[in-house]
Amino acid sequence: MKSFFKNVLANIVAIVILCVVFFFFFIIMLVFSAMGSDKSVEVKKNSVLTINLKTNIIDSPTEEQTGIFNINNQNKSVLIYDAIEAINKAKTDDNIKGISIEADDLHAGITQIDDLRNAIQDFKKSGKFVYAYGNAVSQASYYLGSVADQYYLNPSGMIELKGLATEVTFFKDFADKYGIGIEVIRHGKFKSAVEPFLRNDISPENKEQLGTLLNDIWKNTSTRIAASRKIDTAQFRTVVDSLYGMIPELGLKHKLADKLIQKTEYDELIKSKLSLKEKNKLNKISLGKYIASYSEDDKSGDKVAVLYASGSINNGDGYNDIYSDKYVKYIKELQENDKVKAVVLRINSPGGSANASDEILFELQQLKKKKPLVVSFGDYAASGGYYIAMAADKIYSEPNTLTGSIGVFGVIPYFKDLANKNGVRSDIVATNANSMYYSSLNGVSPYGVSMITRSVEGTYKRFVHFVTKNRKQTFEQIDSIGGGRVWSGTRAKQIGLVDELGTLNDAIKFAAQKAGLKSSYNVASFPKKMTPFEQIFNDLNEDEISAKIIKSKIGKANYEILNQITNEKLQSEVKMEMPYQIKID
């Protein structure tokens, strides 16, 4: 028996030592990897700037995923601002002769693709070529690739050009079947974030706003694709409705592609364009490597700071989303930094906690008293994401930004019937009339519902109040276009929810101008990227581990719904949040 325990103990010790050794080996590899990534990159003559499958275009430094959960992720993340700057630089770089778009499945949001497309369109004015090649091409990738002078498709490839659609999932019957009660309080008939818990079908109001939104976005994108490919509008609609892009020969016939060739033939075609001999190597350089090739400007002078606010808005402290404690700290630092002459708040958020949004808005209002504050919208600036923009001197939106959703709601789940069916009951002992106005087993008391409703209504009035001040409209005017409704950036400009349609670069230029800065200013990004070590320790957080595992299994959209029902912090909050996300997949 003694020898048995000795063997067990020895094995446990060996496992622990092995784990420690592996951990330190992993850390050392990360260090060397980080050191290696800082090496300068040489841009050779006759190079081609390449947007390929290994490029993730992200809106904010907080979106870059590193650490132990992404050790196998080989994709290089590039900030959209850096990507646009790289394309602008390549326009006048004698070593860059053209651009090759080789992304079958582009990792980027709709407004990021818009900005890339605009930059490439401008690049073409230099007289340099832009070619694109695809195998199994997603709609988002084709939207970008269609800007090319020539589009080449694999003979056995396809282009998934289909238009836009959305599918809304409903949980009311599921909740009723299993005895899950859900108390919902909302303001705004268009505040459809809670509809899955209230109905078994889509409401007329939600159907109306979704139809308008999808048609606005599709009109913007389809018009640009058709114009680039020189296809008549009516013909293009037939091509999309008929899914002709799924068949390579039909795609070629209907002008979606210029030629069906293999990838090797495509590379040879580019070499011929560059007048390279057969023995010469084709020099392709990715966006990430090209950005690394040119040294950063001197950062000691005056700055326009870009504060990225990407993800859901939450109370507390965290990194990957927008956490009030963290952002209050960032804003105060920018306010006190004398080298920062103006701030651009880049918002890419569907909203979240009303309380956290209010905290952030207040600090931004204090910042605005000391220096110019300009807001730029990315893919989303809805609910709390729109709310925090109300401190701005000026708001820029992209045409396809999901904007507005001026509304408030609260979702309170309880499990009384489910518990009773399984023999679980409870009694309450309390000191006051409403000491337990809410219980996960018994739900919300009538008086509790009344008070939460007052809270929701009060929050909505506060929301509209700040919008009226910033947009210089009456309560009635904002209320008529609020009610939780989401608008495209194009419509938001028409109804006065934003000032201009423009990019992040446009917002930066205006902020610099408002601060009285000439051409000699630098652009600094906040928050800074996490170091590999910081990301590792962040990943080791128990909640982060479980969240990432569940999210990977059930998908991000389903995880958000599950989190709304199960997360105690979210259950106790009044929410300013958009009901859905739209992607051009």
From TrEMBL:
Keyword Transmembrane (UniProt): yes
Sorted UniProt keywords: Hydrolase, Membrane, Protease, Serine protease, Transmembrane, Transmembrane helix
Gene3D superfamilies: 2-enoyl-CoA Hydratase, Chain A, domain 1, 6.20.330.10
Domain Peptidase S49: 123-265, 366-517
Active-site residues, Swiss-Prot/TrEMBL: K191, S383
InterPro entries found in the cross-reference section: ClpP/crotonase-like_dom_sf, Pept_S49_pIV, Pept_S49_SppA, Peptidase_S49, S49_SppA_67K_type_N, S49_SppA_C
Entry keyword annotation includes Transcription: no
UniProt-listed Pfam families: Peptidase_S49
GO molecular function annotations of the record: serine-type peptidase activity
Protein location: Membrane
Transmembrane intervals: 12-35
GO biological process: signal peptide processing
An example Gene Ontology CC term for this record: membrane
Taxonomic superkingdom: Bacteria
Family, similarity comment: Belongs to the peptidase S49 family.
Protein name: Signal peptide peptidase SppA
Organism of this sequence: Chryseobacterium glaciei
